[in-house]
Design goal:
Strand order of the largest sheet: 1-4-3-2
Strand content: 35-45%
Structural class: alpha+beta
Order of helices and strands: HEHEEE
Largest sheet: 4 strands, antiparallel
Distance between the termini: 28 Å
Number of helices: 2
Radius of gyration: 11 Å
C-alpha cells in the first residue's frame, strides 16, 4: 500500500463517523487490499466508496449488522 492509502485507512479507523476523498485507483486498491472491511474502535465496518465525479471517490464507514 502507498503512504496515501495508509493515511486514508488510519484516518477512517480513528474517526469511524468521518469521510475522506481520494482518487479512483487508490480507492480500488484499498477495497481490494482490505476486502471492503475495516476493524475500527473494536467494531467491524464496511468501507463504502461513492463516486463523486472526475475520478474522485468518497470513502466512509458503515457498521456491519
Amino acid at each position: 500500500m502507498t503512504p496515501e492509502q495508509n493515511r486514508v485507512l488510519n484516518f477512517l479507523a480513528s474517526m469511524p463517523n468521518g469521510h475522506t476523498t481520494l482518487k479512483r485507483d487508490d480507492a480500488a486498491a484499498i477495497l481490494l487490499e482490505t476486502g471492503g472491511n475495516l476493524l475500527a474502535c473494536g467494531r467491524l465496518y464496511n468501507i463504502v466508496a461513492k463516486p463523486i465525479g472526475a475520478g474522485i471517490y468518497r470513502l466512509s464507514l458503515e457498521p456491519t449488522r
